[in-house]
Amino acid sequence: MSFSTKSAERFRTVIEKSPYSIGDPLVKLQYVQRGNNVIFGRTLQGNDLSNLIYVGKILETTKGRTFLGADAWLDTTFPHVIYITGTRGSGKSFDLGVLVEGISQLVTPSPIQNVVQPIASIIVDTQSQFWTLGYPPRDTIAANEVQLAELRNWNLRPNSLADARIYAPPGTTTFLDNVATLQLRPRDVKVEEWAALLGQEIYSPQGHILTVTLEALSDRDFEVSEMLSYIADETNWPGTAESSRNALTYKLDDYRRTNLFSSKGLAVSELLKEHRCNILALRELRNEDKSLITAVKARSLFYIFGKYQNRKKDALLFEKPYEET
Description:
325 residues; alpha/beta; 5-stranded mixed sheet; 7 helices; 14% strand; elongated
């Protein structure tokens, strides 16, 4: 099956009518009439229909010609920014799961991928629900019966990701035996983030103590306990009020006990294994901690991508050999 221009090879017809209608006619659409396929995210060039993932069927009608029931495909040759909206329980997470399945290595080949090169992915899972991507739905579980019936209706078979790695912070309740530990390296957290995490202004007395402490330890990986030891050493703080150091120590020691931080914490490079889907299960963390983990990992990724692009530009500009690493 997969992407086809033959009507007989399409996914089954599961949508014949819809309560959703758009008032304005469509002006531009990448549409392959034979087979009734709609392409999103790419202007078609010739007959190249590779690198497409299947996301479902069109569920809206429009004025003039309607594409209701057409198969919808998304391009994977270029990074896209996709905003998924909806009310609670409307299927936002399900949509994200569909996209992840499309770009990932699957246990068995699937028609949802049309000549797709799987890539690494990272899911910031604030509800700790995407671990299911690593397991196909089974008929021995009553809650899966509806999903399995839907798959049969679409002429699809149950499947799962071939390489899904789940990371969870220490102390998180898990029932799987393959969960890796998620910890941040203190050196990866900027002083502004430490200050916000501890409820301090960067230019406050406690913010100043944080700044000096991080600068003193910046030449190596370090533990939160080393930050506490540096702050506790009064020879490092001539003219600084002991009350400010004590107040900061109490707050920082609370984070030491959570074990969320470690000098051997997860480096973002470990999340870039080819074809692997990395799931950061954060449900039991406070919102501040979820935001911190997301910010640190995103910044580290942008830094790596920036170096990669700079090397490519340098090689192109000066006609030097370039090898991807």
